[in-house]
């Protein structure tokens, strides 16, 4: 298999893992893949019986789980709204890049959720508590498992590690909307690739090269609004909104920063990748901050364009 094909497949695997991990804010993260793909297959013109049948089958699988209450309706309602917005933008913004459509779908889903919350605030509060509880339950189970297997270890160290895990769980419960939004964008990327393969044949590079990852520069205002909500004395509600906006946009700018660095320095070799992965695991806050700063700087300096212009102006020997 060609090296380019391997790189694209690796990119899809990474996107799928990100989507699935972030999608743990839903009881069934697989819905982020099944429902959008099903709706794209059914709604894509012209209607083709084989694609419609495949889409209906995927939808049946997604909704085959027995009804388990409020969360069952909430998670399927979320992915249905997300899928509908994505199909709408894919039909109307045909020349727009994938990321513009995906971010538009997420923004449309957020606006829809806010409108529904205005009419049913108590239901929204209950749903928020239940979804946040998923993170707390997972942390509680992990802490109990760690305590069961470390009875012979230093109890003080175990207690400190447990306290850190619970704090991390509270953080995740606070920013789960941003995590779900990030997982949704990654899942839609995998879905869009799969749809193009099924509907249009073997076109592997439908998402474009990762080193060209970018989005509209004026989205920096979303980050600025998030910082303002977080800093201004607006209470817990403002802090919650600000932290989620900052998390979502901060992650996007960090990914943009990584793309800029890859474009400037080229793809690293195996051992360099291993070293960078280890560094990202051990000092991930510093790595995230560095790549975030590079991504934000790219708004004004457009580092990749400067590199291209410099390469063109260099005389050939």
Please give a handful of descriptors for the protein shown:
mainly alpha, 2 domains, 79% helix, 317 residues, globular
Radius of gyration: 21 Å
How much helix is in the residues? Answer: over 70%
* Number of structural domains: 2
Distance between the termini: 35 Å
Question: What is the number of E strands?
Answer: 0
Shape summary: globular
SS-derived structural category: mainly alpha
Number of helices: 13
Would you tell me the overall average pLDDT? Answer: 79
Element-by-element helix/strand order: HHHHHHHHHHHHH
Low-confidence stretches: 311-317
Please state roughly what percent of the residues sit in beta strands, choosing from under 5%, 5-15%, 15-25%, 25-35%, 35-45% or over 45%: under 5%
Main beta sheet: strand number and arrangement?
none
Can you tell me about this structure?
- The protein is about 80% helix and about 0% strand.
- By secondary structure, it is mostly helical.
- Helix 6 packs antiparallel against helix 7 and helix 9 runs antiparallel to helix 10.
């Amino acid at each position: 298999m060609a090296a380019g094909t391997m790189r694209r497949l690796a990119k899809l695997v990474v996107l799928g893992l990100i989507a699935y991990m972030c999608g743990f804010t839903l009881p069934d993260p697989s819905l982020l893949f099944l429902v959008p793909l099903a709706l794209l297959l059914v709604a894509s013109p012209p209607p083709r019986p084989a694609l419609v049948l495949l889409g209906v089958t995927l939808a049946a699988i997604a909704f085959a789980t027995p009804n388990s209450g409020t969360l069952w309706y909430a998670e399927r309602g979320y992915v249905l709204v997300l899928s509908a917005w994505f199909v709408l933008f894919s039909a109307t913004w045909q020349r727009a890049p994938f990321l513009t459509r995906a971010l538009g779908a997420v923004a449309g889903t957020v606006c829809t959720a806010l409108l529904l919350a205005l009419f049913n605030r108590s239901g929204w509060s209950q749903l928020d508590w239940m979804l946040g509880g998923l993170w707390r339950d997972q942390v509680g189970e992990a802490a109990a498992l760690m305590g069961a297997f470390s009875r012979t270890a230093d109890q003080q160290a175990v207690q400190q590690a447990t306290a850190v895990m619970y704090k991390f769980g509270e953080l995740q419960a606070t920013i789960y909307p941003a995590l779900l939004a990030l997982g949704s964008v990654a899942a839609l990327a995998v879905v869009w690739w799969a749809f193009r393969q099924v509907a249009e044949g073997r076109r592997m590079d439908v998402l474009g090269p990762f080193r060209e990852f970018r989005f509209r520069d004026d989205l920096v205002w979303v980050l600025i609004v998030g910082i303002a909500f977080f800093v201004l004395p607006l209470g817990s509600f403002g802090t919650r909104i600000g932290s989620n906006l900052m998390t979502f946009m901060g992650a996007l700018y960090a990914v943009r920063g990584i793309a800029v660095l890859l474009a400037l320095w080229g793809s690293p070799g195996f051992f360099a990748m291993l070293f960078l992965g280890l560094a990202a695991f051990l000092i991930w806050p510093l790595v995230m901050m560095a790549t975030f700063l590079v991504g934000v700087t790219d708004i004004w300096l457009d580092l990749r364009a400067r590199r291209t212009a410099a390469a063109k102006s260099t005389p050939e020997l």
